[in-house]
Structure formats: C-alpha cells, structure tokens
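P.,

For your records, the input lines for the assembly:
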Amino acid sequence: MASATTTTAPLARRRLLGRVGGAGALGFGVSTLWLSVVVLLPLAALVDRSLHDGLAAFWDDVASRQAVAALRFTILISLAVTAINAVMGVLIAWVLVRDDFRGRRAVNAVIDLPFALPTIVAGLTLLALYGSAIAYTKWAVLLALLFVTLPFVVRAVQPVLLALDREMEDAAASLGAGSLAVFRRIVLPNLTGAIVSGAALAFARAVGEFGSVVLISGNRPFDTQVSSVYAYTQVESDNTTGAAAVSVTLLALSLGILVALRVFEGRVGRRDG
Amino acid sequence: MASRLSLRLVALGYLAAILLVPVGVVLYKTFEPGLGEVRASITTPAAVHAFWLTLEVAAIAVPLNTIFGVVTALVLVRSDVRGKRALEALIDLPFAVSPVVIGLALFLLYGREGWLGPTLADAGIQIIFSVPGIVLATIFVCLPFVVREVAPVLREVGDEAEQAAATLGASAWQAFWRITLPAIRWGVVYGVVLSTARAIGEFGAVSIVSGKISGETETLTLLVEKRFNNFDLAGAYAASALLAAIALATLLAMTLINRRGATP
Amino acid sequence: MRLTHLLPVAVAAAVLGAGCGGASDESGGAAATAASGGGAKTTLSLVAFSTPEVVYDELIPDFQKTAAGRGVGFKTSYGASGEQSRAVEAGLKADVVNFSLAPDVDRLVKDGLVAADWTAGPTKGIATNSVVAFIVRKGNPKHITGWDDLLKPGVKVVTPNPFTSGAAKWNILGAYQHGGIKYVDALIKQHVTVQPKSGRDALQTFTGGEGDVLISYEYEYTTAVRKGQGDVQLVVPDDTLLIENPIAVTKNAPPAAKAFVDYVLSPAGQQHFADWGYRPVDQAVFEKNKSTFATPSKVETIADLGGWSKVNDELFDPQHGSVAKIEEEAGVSTAK
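Structure tokens returned:
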C-alpha cells in the first residue's frame, strides 16, 4: 500500500541517506565513529606505545629471530587453516542448506559452538581426544585453529545460499548441464563474495588465536610458537614496547592480506556498482 | 544420488572429527558426575553472578554491534561515499588482534597511566577492571560479525525492490523496515547468533581487562578458567555447558523470531 | 530485536532452576566474597596470585571471626602473579597484594602504589615459603631422587616457560643453584619437552599424562592430592631453592589491611597455609608442622644467588640473558 504521508523526503535527508535503500553519508559517519571509538582509539594507543623507544628499537623488537619465526609460522598456518575451512565451509553450508537428513537441524545448531566454548575448553578437549598422537606439534596448532575458525565460512555462505534464486540453476539443469557444472558456473560465482568474506574473518581470527593454541602447542620457540604467544612473553618480560611492536607488525601484515582479499573479491563478480 | 550422499558424508565426517566429537566430549564430561552435581555446580553464587554478568555484557554489546553492522553493511554495499574502502578494510581489524594485545591496548588507553586514565580518574569513572571495560573488550572482538554476515546477502538481493518502493512513495525508513530488513533477515540472524556466541565465549581480552574480581567482574569464561585451575574439572565443564546452552538458546530464539516474521 | 534476549534468558533461568543459592564454589563459604551483607564497615580488596586461593577461602572467614576482622568484607581477585601485578599497576584497586615473587611487588613500589619499606617487617615482607621440588608418577618409576636424575637419558621434564610466567623463574633458579648454567642448558635442550604457559598449566599438563617429572613448587603437590589428583608423588631434592612469596599493603589502604596482613603472618593464619603444604615463615608454626615437610640439606635463597635484579639481568633478560640464549638455541635445534 502506498503511504499517505511523505511522498518526497526533504532534499537534505536524501543527501544524507544517499541512494535509495542505502545509508549514505549519515550511515558512514555513524559507522566510522563507532569503529573509531571501539577499535581505532585503543589501537592508536598501541601504535603509540610501540614507537615509545623510537624506530630503531621497534625494528629490533620486530626483527629478532624469534619474532620473525613466530610471525612466519603464524601466517603460514593461518593461511593453511583458512584454505581448508574455506573449502569445507562451502561444502558444509551446501549440505546444511540444500540437503535434508535426520539431525540436520541439530548439526546446524552446533556450528557456532567453537565461538561459545571458551578457548581453554577447546584446547583441553582437543588435547584429551587427539592428545597422544599430535600434542605439542604443528598438527596440534592446525587442529586447534581448524576448530576455532570452522563457523566463519559456513555461516557466511549459508545466508547467501538461502537467499539464492534457484531459477538460474533450474534453467541450466533443464538445458542439460550436469550438477557440477551448474555449481561451478552458476552457484559458485554468487558465493564468492561470501566465501572471501568468511575466509577473511577466519584468517584474521586464526592469526590472533591465543587461548587454545597456547595450551596445545607446547609453545616451542621457532617451532610451534605463534605470534600472540610471543607477544605474551614480551609482556611478561616487562617489554611492553616490544609486545606492542610485534602486535602492530602482525596487525599490519594481517591488514595487508585482508585488503588483498578484498581487492580480489572486488574483481570477482560483484553485483553492485 | 550417490554424489549427494558422498558430499553429505564428507561434510559430516569433517564436522564430526573437528567439532562434534570434541563438543560431545564436553557434554559427556559435564554430565558424567550426574545431574545433581551439575545443578550444584551452576547454582553457586559465583556461577549465578557470572551467568548474569555474561548475559548483561552480551545484551549490551550484541544489539549495539547489530545496529552498527546493518548500517555499515548498507554503507559498504549501497553507498558511494568516499572512504568506503578504508572502512571496509578496517572492519576486520578486531580479529587480527590477539586477546593479549586487546588487553594491552585497552590498558594503554583507559588504564591508570593510559591516554584517558588520569581524566577518567578525575571524573571518578571506572572503565577498566569494571563492567564497562568488559563490555568494551567484548564489543571489540565481535565488531565485524554482523557486517560480514549481512553485506554478502545485501549484495545478493540487490536494491530493485527498494527502488520500486521509492517510486511508490515509501519513505526511507519504511523501505528499510519492510523491504530491506526482511530480505537480509538470515544474514542478521546468523550475525546476531555468531556475535552472541563470540561475546559470551570471549576469554583472553576479558581476562586481562576485568580484574577477575570474584562476584563482580567474573564472567562465565573466567569462571571456567578458575575452576579448571582449582582442579574442579566437573565444575569447569558445567560452566562451559552453560555457555553452550546460551549459544544454542540464542540460535533457537533467533530462528523462531525469524520464522514468525516470515509469515505475516 | 531486543525481545530475543528474553527467550534465552528464560531458557537459561529454567536451567538454573528455582532458587539462587547452593553449595559455594569456595570451600570457605560465600561470606568470604560477599562485599555487602549487613553492616560491613570496611571492604578490603585482596589481589593475589592464583595458587593461594584455596588457602584464602578458609583463612578469610576465620579472620572475619576475630575482633580485628569483624565486619570486614572482602573482594578477591586471583590470577597469574605477573598479570595481577600489572593489573594493579594499571589501576586495579588493591589494599593487600600477595604475589609469587618480590619483583612483582617492587613494580608497584616504582609506581608509588606500595611503600618502599614494605620489606621492613619481621618477615621481610614474605608471607609464605616453599621449595622447588619434583612431582613424579606414583611409585616413582624413573627413580628420580635429585637434580642429576633429570638428566638421565630418556627422562622427560615439564616446567613452565620462564618467559611467559615470572613465577616459573623459581624452577629454573632451582636448577641453576644445583649445576649452574651448564646444567640449565642440558636440562632445557635435552629434557624439557613442553613448556606450558604457567605453573598451574604445567601441573595440569603433567597430570594429563605428559612427561615423567614436573618441576614445581612443593605445595602444588598438596593441592593436587587434596583435589583428587592422587596418582602422583612428591620428591624433594637434597639441594634446592627457597621460594619466597611476598605480601604487602598498598598506600591508602584502610587500617584493616594491615590487620589482615598481621593475621596472615600470625600462627593462626600461617597454620592455614601449612595445611595446604606451604612452609610457614613463622618458625613456631613450622616446627609444629615439621613432620609434613622434607628437610633438604642445602636450601639456597634468592639472596644467595645475588638478588632478583642480578638474576633478572644475567639470566632472564629477553635479549641478553643466558637462559634466553639457551631457549633460543633450543628452539633452533628442535625446529624442523
């Protein structure tokens, strides 16, 4: 039913809200303000502290052999975990949305549990289950990170799959395309944005994970020590500036990878302008 | 079809190994000592306080982040504001920050010797080592969720319906409430569910900024750690099961609300 | 959308059942942590390291029954010693602090939160002692009797990482007083399989099945056994290091804080600690409980090793300390 009240919003409000259906400049302002207060301000204090002793000290803290080893291990293992959970995430989301079997609802419900369960419990449980085989090795770290990042891609892809219009798929199928082709050429391109979105979250989370990894990895420097644990050792040794420096570096690197992912996402089939 | 079955098996097999079995172990270990023990475990004064504190923090952090998330998704997908790309890149930042670092950053900002420390002390406002500090740390860690869930869905549904509504004379708010929101509802649902789960399950950052004052700033996750450290394994698992129950209840509630909204 | 929060609350409230009370988490009773409750005239904030929580659960209610403690409410916070110290530095309210090692109190002196003369009392500011000891599997299958046995081929040692836990330094210093840096070198590079984040984590790792020997504070054995981890055994080496846990009152603390510290150092308070395996600083109480403690022939103190500043500089400095170098080299050799 057409509304009997306003037929044209005042020009100022249109300018503020931008395009129809969008949130425009006002929305942008609100978002940025919130982001700044909650995230950027504390991080600014962090960056400030990391430079407390000057750039030379910053470099020393960051380029120490142990810091570099921790950083390399962290980034590599996080990339591996992201790749695995990206693939499996799509698969699981597909099965949960398009398939139907007894217990599907129950399985869907537990997907979020890696978030709700405190990391200490996750670490303990994984240790109890797979302990003797892989404890205190790189595989233990992989397992812990797979657990904590599992929900990301699944939950990112699910809503998109649910909202997907099936007409194109049906049309393609009726024209004789096999299910794999339909998936690859019609469904997947629509999911790419969500997959990248979820993968970015998963990667970022893996890079910062502390609680479960610190319990299960043995924290061997140069072997199974991740950057977050290394930063912790710096804090414990009263080298707050060093801890801040390492954290800022990790942040910058992660940001770089995330930006790269977003650029990739932008190139691959975005619908909006 | 065979391929459907094999897909299902692979998915479920992976889930079982990585997720279902560990969660099953937690549940088993929780109820192993018996229902009476579990009930006793979760009704101690410390547990009751921790439960309500956890809910209180989530009840503040999640709605705020949901509003932020939906507004930001709208900005990212549907606006042409300059600086949009920067906003987008920065949204994921909270995840790349480990809990140790979040705690450190909040110390450096609100602590006694931090940027805002002296000002807050003069005004008599206690942020860190008090509930506001916990809320801030929690908002920090679940900031990106709703955005990341809603944005892809927004992209998927496009804005033709809103365009049509505008030509029919709908106001911006009407278009949003009646067209946009229902279209993105599953994104919002999963965003809220993920946010809540993440908010109640946060341990590291809260551990550092809460001060762990028993009966005042001890959340459920901190209680789990305390019990684990005191060899009260059954109690630790019971508190964890409570966390899982909250997460499940949130999913249940959101799904129900969603279903009801779908049939006008 | 705000309604959604009522439903899980309802569900969870149902889970909680009727009534809001029940057995307490703390063995001493809920009164210990209730700051309110009719007519409390003062509230003390106790910030302590994590292990004495079990002791304070019993000690605090007893203190509240004394004349000095009547009407005093308590707010307690327990956590890793270094983290707690840093929290107080950053603004966590504390009237009484009880940490694992003196540097964690000295940090607060530097910030003006604790008076510089906190070590001036009769016990030099120390609340309890312990010694560095070994916890082994019941029956002692690997026949561990002293430090040298840890270097026997195939013996796997668990000890927390001294760089993630300030309190873990005691263990390394115990090894250091026995065989110097060469011994520590051999121990870490060839026998330490895993270095958990903290002492309690290390104990959990050990009771979970990893390793043959856990280097630990002596009293952790008592805690483990009293909490049902009975499959272990205590071995106190003949030469070891004295662990000294400091306690101090902060500036601006109410007079009740001093009264509380006095109680902790009194025979009644010290007996509570002795019950949990801590070695009392009060000589009389120690004599009374002598039978429960082993008597190593040589017990070094941190003063014998040159004091904390010397030790922290030479051994534990993350850039130049000898232990830091050993850890680095150990990492390189085990890295694949």
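Two observations worth noting. Chain C touches chain B through 50 residues (CB under 8 Å). The two ends of chain C are 52 Å apart (CA to CA).

Regards
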